[in-house]
Specification:
This protein has 544 residues and is α/β, with parallel strands linked by helices. The protein folds into 3 domains: 2-64 and 208-296, Rossmann fold (3-Layer(aba) Sandwich), CATH 3.40.50.300; 67-174, no CATH class; 320-403 and 439-543, Rossmann fold (3-Layer(aba) Sandwich). Helices cover 39% and strands 21% of the residues. The protein contains 19 helices and 18 strands. Strands 5-6-7-3-8-9 form a 6-stranded mixed β-sheet, sandwiched between helices. Strands 14-15-16-12-17-18 form a 6-stranded mixed β-sheet, with helices on both faces. Strand 8 and strand 9 (229-234) form a beta hairpin. The longest helix has 19 residues, at 258-276. It starts with a strand and ends with a helix. 39% of the residues are buried.
Length: 544
């Protein structure tokens, strides 16, 4: 068990939270939510002991082991991949190193032999005999092929390192598991596997995530950072969101009686409980729904941006034709090869693949920012595409360091300052914020600026490479709705499961050795046996 007592943190005069007393118990998964800057990651770092609070304390039950998802992707560059995973259980790994050193020492004494025997016994009690195979299984489940297990970490790509560090945190069934944005840089198949893993995890999980589907699949409780307080409510993210919105509506309508509000909420809880019973969460976790306390839930103080894509031009019959497209990575291996498809009116393609760099390469080629090694791309003459790249730093360089008004004015036909200020205001840049320099914006602010740029262009075709990166849950929810309502065509990729499921009406999975193309929705695609067989065939052909 993990508890906090009268916890408080502030920077100067700014109070992030105070008087926080919480209890995190075994068998539950707690999803930490809050607006950007509310202190989600900071709170997790305090729990992990990486940051000291101004006052209050964090208490870990004696004998409990805590594991934390490492954020430094270069910390283990010289280590073997398999060893890096086993380092997640530090005490077990240290014992392994010590006993192996004794066995390798030709001058070992009788005392050393007794010590080794003692270490062997402790090692076995910790589950050390299966440590290597357990670590290898975790890596394989995350898509890290066996031939990479004995390479050094520095030989892996960025996304591969992320998976290894996640496997490190999960290794050895820690009593307390702290995960800050674990789905970032993960492909869709790995996110699905992780959701299943955590839903069945027997100990305590505390996770920060902007992925609503992921939070719904794994969480039994929501830890909401709002009003400079931190509150735990029972239920998953959807329950918290719907109930918070309902409470806000009830408070806005002062004529409604409290008894009617309670009746409406109770009916909602009953419906929610019935739906939750059909989920993949462990049976023991479903019982938490019975403990829901209406008084715990408050309306959120968060604000939602305005996002709406309105095409200026109707597309003609020809939308997009891709023929035999191939691209190699700098090291010579194929990102993808022989990709061919034709996009029809009304189609919104969800693009997936194991390698995120391959997806970005594909989008860069479609957007004309890179060249394919072979193949052709042909947009229809009436098509006006706009691109939201995964990496947007070059749009906000110091060389052209404009304030937000002048930055957005570059992309607007209407140059009037009041119009620009009004547009920025709807994207949550208000007051003096419109004079901020574009180079000092946060990641989420830059994405909101890029979305503003796209909206002002009125495209009828969208190319979106991980559009939810750096966005808070409120912006993601609004973007999701905008993508659903968009009347044009779209090719996008996202690790947000709900966006993939609610927006895409066609799924294309790209591989180094070909592609899988289906008119199924996302959930159907992930579950279909036919798709699984096609994937095995492509991966098998590549290994040969």
């Amino acid at each position: 068990m993990l508890t906090t007592t009268d916890l408080g943190l502030q920077y100067g005069k700014r109070v992030l939270f105070d008087e926080v007393s919480l209890k995190f118990t075994r068998g539950n998964c707690y999803g930490v939510i809050g607006a950007n800057g509310a202190g989600k990651s900071t709170f997790v770092k305090i729990l992990a002991g990486e940051i000291d609070p101004n006052y209050g304390s964090v208490n870990l039950e004696p004998g409990n082991r805590m594991a934390v998802l490492k954020q430094d992707h270069f910390e283990f560059e010289e280590e073997i991949v398999l060893n890096t995973v086993m380092m997640g259980h530090k005490k077990m790994y240290d014992i392994m190193v010590e006993k192996d050193a004794i066995y390798m020492n030709p001058d070992a004494t009788d005392a050393d032999g007794l010590r080794a025997a003692e270490l062997e016994n402790t090692y076995g009690e910790m589950g050390g005999w299966t440590a290597e195979s357990d670590a290898a299984e975790l890596l394989s489940n995350m898509g890290i092929k066996e031939h990479l297990h004995y390479k050094q970490m520095k030989e892996l790509s960025g996304p591969e390192k992320v998976k290894v560090l996640l496997a490190q945190a999960l290794f050895g069934e820690p009593d307390i598991l702290l995960l800050d944005e674990p789905t970032n840089d993960l492909d869709a198949l790995t996110v699905t596997w992780l959701s299943d893993f955590l839903a069945d995890f027997k100990n305590t999980v505390i996770v920060v995530s902007h992925d609503r589907y992921f939070l719904d699949m794994v969480c039994t409780h929501i830890v909401d950072i709002d009003y400079k307080k931190i509150r735990i409510t029972t239920g998953n993210y959807t329950f918290w969101y719907e109930t918070s919105q309902m409470m806000a509506r009830q408070i806005a309508n002062k004529n409604k009686k409290n008894e009617q509000k309670r009746k409406e909420l109770m009916e909602f809880i009953q419906r929610f409980s019935a739906n939750a019973s059909k989920s993949r969460q462990a049976t023991s976790r479903k019982k938490a729904l019975e403990k829901i306390n209406l008084e715990e839930i408050m309306p959120s103080s968060r604000k939602y941006p305005y996002i709406h894509f309105k095409p200026e031009r109707e597309p003609g019959d020809q939308i997009l034709r891709v023929n035999n497209l191939s691209k190699r990575a700098p090291d010579g291996h194929y990102y993808f090869s022989d990709i061919s498809f034709t996009l029809e009116a009304g189609e919104k393609i969800g693009l997936i693949g194991r390698e995120t760099s391959a997806l970005t390469a594909f989008f860069d080629i479609l957007a004309g920012e890179d060249q394919a090694d072979s193949g052709t791309i042909e947009f229809g003459q009436t098509i006006t595409p706009e691109y939201l790249p995964n990496e947007n730093e070059h749009y906000f360089s110091n060389e052209n360091d404009l304030d937000l008004i002048n930055w957005l004015r570059q992309y607007s036909e209407e140059k009037d300052e009041q119009f620009i200020r009004g547009f920025l205001g709807r994207m949550l840049f208000s007051g003096e914020e419109v004079y901020k320099k574009s180079s000092v914006l946060s990641g989420g602010e830059k994405v909101r600026c890029m979305l503003s740029k796209i909206m002002l262009k009125h495209p009828n075709f969208l190319l979106l490479d991980e559009p939810t990166n750096h966005l808070d849950l409120e912006s993601i929810t609004t973007l999701n709705n905008a993508m659903i309502e968009f009347k044009g065509n779209m090719i996008f990729t996202s690790h947000d499961h709900q966006i993939m499921q609610t927006v895409a009406n066609r799924i294309i999975e790209i591989h180094p050795n070909g592609m899988i193309d289906s008119l199924m929705n996302y959930d159907e695609f992930l579950k279909a046996d036919r798709i699984k067989e096609q994937r095995k065939s492509l991966e098998g052909a590549l290994s040969v």
